Each structure stands twice: as structure tokens, then as C-alpha cells.
Amino acid sequence: MSVNVYDLAYTVEKGIRESAEYAELKKQYEAVMADENARTMFHNFRDIQVKLQEKQMTGQEITDEEVLQAQKTVALVQQHDLISKLMDAEQRMSVVLGDVNRIITKPLEELYGTQG
Amino acid sequence: MSVNVYDLAYTVEKGIRESAEYAELKKQYEAVMADENARTMFHNFRDIQVKLQEKQMTGQEITDEEVLQAQKTVALVQQHDLISKLMDAEQRMSVVLGDVNRIITKPLEELYGTQG
To answer: Could you report the per-residue pLDDT of B59-101, keeping only the tens digit for each?
Structure first.
């Protein structure tokens, strides 16, 4: 039964791969990766993000200092032209993916939203 | 461009709505809701889950006592025939949704997995 759902999911995957948002994201990601300074800065930023997310997921407390460090890093990377463009592209892609996810999980939301 | 992606997402939504997993989930959910004892137990269980998730998301510490209480509640609801069937149906539906999500986010994973 669900084979059908999977087939449909693959058509969405293909659609995302062919979307303007994905093309732009790919372009900006590759531009950052091609610039050593931008790449290092971006990876550093990612590392901090992942570390904080892991702490959050495992219920560890995030210190004020860590929040401050993360905010500083965000402010820093946003000033870098290539990274700032990549982050814009990520934002636009994530809007599409968020919308897709909302559409797909609608049947569940409807079910659990009733008689709740 | 993304209009196309949204159209495709709606076909997945329809596919999920028509899947055997969703039909089974709906059936089991309605059976729980129709039984006052099961419904109360299920809502109680949900409340505890949501509370713990909120704490986790906002970085608040979850006490050992809360973990223990949650485990006890899970053990209790699992013994209830109707709820246990609902949880099985939820599990099977969540496998489908997880697979769909993995398929759809593959282009992103590929992009960020390279040169990483």
C-alpha cells in the first residue's frame, strides 16, 4: 500500500532537486566551499550550532556564555557576503521544506486535532 | 517554480490519507476516543509527553523523577489493549512518515554531506 506513498515521495524529491530554491542553495553552498576563509567560518558556525542542538536534545543546560558565543558567531558570519547569501538561500529552501512537511503531515494533524 | 513542489506534496498527502497505515491509525484512534477510560489515560500520557518535550526544547532540565514517572505511564498505557493497538498503529505510520521525510530531504543531505 505504502509503496505508492514512497513513489509519490520520490516525485517530491525530484521536484525539490529541480526547484529554483535548490539550484540557488547549491550555487551558494558551492561558492562558500570554494572560498577557504568562508568555508572555515561556515564550518566553525555549523560546529557551534550542532553542539548546541545536541545539548538541547540531550537535555543539557546551555550556559549564557554559550548563547552569547553563538550570537556573536551568527553576527560574524552574517557579515560575510558569501555566507550571508548562503544563509538566505537556506532560509528560502527551508520555507519550501517546511510547507511541504506541513502539507504531508496534515492528515495526522487533522486526526489528532479532533476530539483532542 | 515551487508551485510544482507543492502540487507534488499534495499528492503525497492524498497518498498518506489513502494508505493502509493511516486507515488503521484512524480506526485505532477513534476506538480509543470512544472509550472513556482509554481516552483519559491516553490524554494523560500525551500531556506528560508534551510537557517533557517542551522542557527538552527549551533546554530545561528533566529530573530523574520525571523520567521515572514517564516510564511508569508508558508501561501503564501499553497494558491497555486499545491504547497499545493505537501506539502500534502510530509506530507504523511514523515509519512511513520518517521514510517519506528521508526521501524528500535527500537532496539537502547530499549537498551538505559533500565537501563537509
So the answer is: 788 899 998 988 998 898 889 999 999 999 999 999 999 999 9
Answer yes or no: CATH 3.50.50.60 is held by domain A2-113.
no
B19 CA: distance to closest CA in chain A (Å) = 6
Q: Determine, for residues B6 and A106 on separate chains, whether the beta-carbon distance falls below 8 Å.
A: no
- Is this complex scored with an ipTM above 0.95? no
Whether A24 and A92 have beta carbons less than 8 Å apart is answered as yes
Q: Please provide the distance, in angstroms rounded to a whole number, between the alpha carbons at the two ends of chain B.
A: 28
Domain definitions of chain B by residue range: 2-113
What pTM, to 2 d.p., does this model score? 0.81
List the one residue out of A52, A88, A90 whose CA is nearest residue A70.
A52
The amino acid present at A71, given as its one-letter code, is Q
SS3 of B19-30: CHHHHHHHHHHH
- What's the rounded Cα separation, in Å, for the pair B97 and B78? 22
